C-alpha cells in the first residue's frame, strides 16, 4: 500500500495547541523598572550641551574675539610710549641744566659798559703834553677820544679802530683811582698794584688792577675767581694773549701789529662786584707823517 495514498482517519484524535505560558509571579512584576516618561529639553539646552550634529553649534560668536596679535601690538605701543617719555625727560633735563649753567656763567661775568665820552682838559691828565710829544715823534693824530673805564665792568669797546702799522698813544686822568676791595686793599692808579693778590689777573705782562687793552673783534673771556682776604697770593698769573697790550697810566708810541677795535678794562679777574673806582682815558691813534 502506498503511504501517499493514506488519508487521515477522522476517528483518530487531533493534537491540541500548546497551552499559554503561566503569568509571572507577582514579585517579578514589582521588580521591573518603571518606564521613564519623555521630558522635552529646555530652550537653552543646546547652548550648554549641543548635539554633535547641530548645524548652529559652530556658528561664530557675536562680538570681538580676543586676538594674541592685537595684545602683542598693545604691549609694543605701551613700551614705545614709555621709551619716548624717558627720552624726552632726559632731553628736557639736560636742556634745562645747560640753560641754568649758561645763566650762571653769564651772571658770573662783569657787566658790559659803554665808553662814556669825557671832555676833561689836557691839564687834568697825567701826561698833559702828550699831543706835543706825538708831533715831536713825527706823527699826526688820526683819531682821538676820551672815556671812562669803570673797575667793575668787562671789556669796554672804545669805538676806535686801529690799522696795522699805526700807533696808539694814551694817558689817564690824574685823579683816577680804583680798588679791588677798599675794605681790604688800597687804591691804585692805572699802573695797578703788586699785591691783591698779584696772581689773580688777566694780562700776565701787567700788574693786577692796572689798565690793560686789546686789539681785535673779540677780547678774551674772563673767568671770575672768588677770593677773600684769607686767600693766599697766587692765582693763574694771567695770560699772554695775542692782541693784548698794557696802557697803564700813560702809553707812548705803541706800534700796532694787528688791526681791529681797541678794548680797555681793569686787569682783575676776582670778585668784580667788589671793585670800585674808575679811570678816565684819552686815546690817540696816530700815523707817521
Explain this structure:
The protein is an alpha+beta fold. 19% of the residues lie in helices and 24% in strands. It has 4 helices and 11 strands. The chain has helices at residues 26-30, 45-48, 68-107, 130-136, and strands at 116-117, 139-150, 156-162, 167-172, 177-179, 191-193, 208-215, 244-245, 250-255, 260-266, 276-288. It is rod-shaped and about 185 Å long.
Give a quick set of tags describing it.
six-stranded antiparallel beta sheet, five-stranded antiparallel beta sheet, rod-shaped
Give me a quick take on this structure:
It contains four helices and eleven strands; from the N terminus they run αααβαββββββββββ. With 289 residues, the protein is an alpha+beta fold.
Topology:
Blueprint: H1 26-30, H2 45-48, H3 68-107, E1 116-117, H4 130-136, E2 139-150, E3 156-162, E4 167-172, E5 177-179, E6 191-193, E7 208-215, E8 244-245, E9 250-255, E10 260-266, E11 276-288
Antiparallel strand pairs: 1-2, 2-11, 3-10, 4-9, 4-11, 5-11, 6-7, 7-8, 7-10
- Return the CATH topology of the domain at 116-288: Jelly Rolls
Order of helices and strands: HHHEHEEEEEEEEEE
Helix count from the secondary structure assignment? 4
Principal-axes shape call = rod-shaped
Going by CATH, the architecture of the domain at 116-288 would be Sandwich
| Main pleated sheet | 6 strands, antiparallel
Report the count of strand segments. 11
CATH homologous superfamily title of the domain at 116-288: Galactose-binding lectin
Ranges where pLDDT stays below 50 over 5 or more residues in a row are: 103-107
User: What average pLDDT do the residues reach?
Assistant: 77
User: Residue share in helices?
Assistant: 10-25%
Helical/strand content category: alpha+beta
Distance between the termini: 193 Å
The portion of residues forming beta strands comes to 15-25%
